[in-house]
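Consider the tokenized backbone below.
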């Protein structure tokens, strides 16, 4: 395996980690507008991600930075071609971060309601746009001889890309729902468990349709197998949740997220950005990669820094592993999630 192939796999791993971790962040943000009853319960839901949400976003920054260093042509063409949806994601992440940080800075009900709305809508838009962006990348964009995307934003909009947005929206909402059941007690946990079946069924259907459409468009046996794993995991989520095994249910939804991202990148390979105007214009893993010397330096840097970062983030989740209760509700069951 060449170093550029290794770095393609590493970037896929970074996006998998980001969607796994930030996926339930977005899900929790969306659910504060639908699952919570009142300001106290919204605060309880947001407290489940309070210590970790900003660390989860580091995975996206690392994935983008790794793409810039290892595949400069991919980075340049992708970011310029998807400029508007990427800008919308960044604006939503900024609004969401400010709302999460400053929600509790003022003891004022209208202020908190405004921050809560910002969290809900920015999380919802981000959850949709990430699927829209990756679906557009899989579908292909018109790439000119100068490696620039032509035609503006309109070529990005299609039934397939809109379905991709719905796919990540459903998947992240389910992931957040199971995280809420894993990390809370009392009424929120009960409502989350009752909602799992409907959301999981919708997520399974949308995931199956989107990834099967991807398979028909891009082909390949490996993505087809991984798609089956994702859908099976979503089906098993319902059984585990209804039996009260919140930890296993959350792990299965995480497996579904990871399998879905793996299917996307397996379908993409050996391209990094297909051209809709012909294969000659497509950016490939080998053609878009940096020099071998640059890739060797990046590999040594990653080998020393990645284990430290992973160990620190794992320690953070271990420290904040206990369930959270809404004020006025007593703890039920075990303090630590199962």
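A designed sequence for it:
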């Amino acid at each position: 395996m060449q170093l550029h192939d290794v770095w393609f796999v590493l970037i896929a791993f970074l996006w998998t980690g980001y969607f796994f971790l930030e996926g339930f962040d977005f899900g929790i943000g969306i659910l504060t507008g639908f699952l919570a009853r009142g300001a106290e319960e919204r605060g309880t839901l947001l407290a489940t991600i309070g210590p970790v949400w900003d660390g989860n976003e580091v995975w996206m920054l690392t994935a983008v930075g790794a793409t810039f260093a290892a595949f400069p042509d991919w980075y340049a063409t992708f970011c310029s071609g998807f400029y508007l949806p990427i800008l919308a994601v960044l604006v939503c992440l900024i609004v969401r971060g400010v709302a999460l940080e400053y929600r509790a800075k003022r003891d004022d009900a209208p202020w908190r309601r405004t921050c809560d709305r910002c969290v809900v809508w920015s999380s919802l838009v981000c959850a949709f746009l990430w699927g829209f962006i990756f679906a557009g990348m899989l579908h292909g964009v018109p790439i000119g001889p100068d490696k620039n995307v032509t035609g503006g934003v309109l070529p990005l909009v299609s039934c397939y890309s809109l379905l991709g947005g719905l796919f990540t929206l459903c998947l992240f909402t389910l992931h957040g729902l199971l995280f809420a059941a894993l990390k809370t007690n009392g009424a929120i946990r009960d409502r989350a468990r009752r909602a799992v079946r409907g959301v999981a069924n919708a997520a399974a259907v949308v995931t199956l349709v989107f990834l099967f459409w991807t398979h028909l468009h891009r082909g390949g046996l490996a993505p087809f197998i991984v798609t089956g794993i994702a859908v099976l995991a979503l089906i098993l989520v319902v059984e585990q949740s209804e039996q009260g095994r919140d930890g296993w249910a959350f792990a299965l939804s995480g497996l579904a997220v990871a399998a879905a991202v793996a299917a996307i990148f397996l379908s993409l390979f050996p391209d990094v950005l297909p051209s809709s105007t012909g294969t000659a214009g497509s950016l490939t893993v080998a053609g878009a990669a940096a020099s071998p010397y640059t890739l060797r330096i990046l590999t040594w840097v990653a080998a020393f820094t990645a284990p430290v970062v992973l160990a620190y983030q794992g320690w953070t989740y271990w420290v904040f592993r206990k369930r959270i209760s809404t004020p006025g509700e007593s703890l039920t069951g075990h303090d630590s999630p199962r």
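The CA atoms of residues 3 and 153 lie 33 Å apart.
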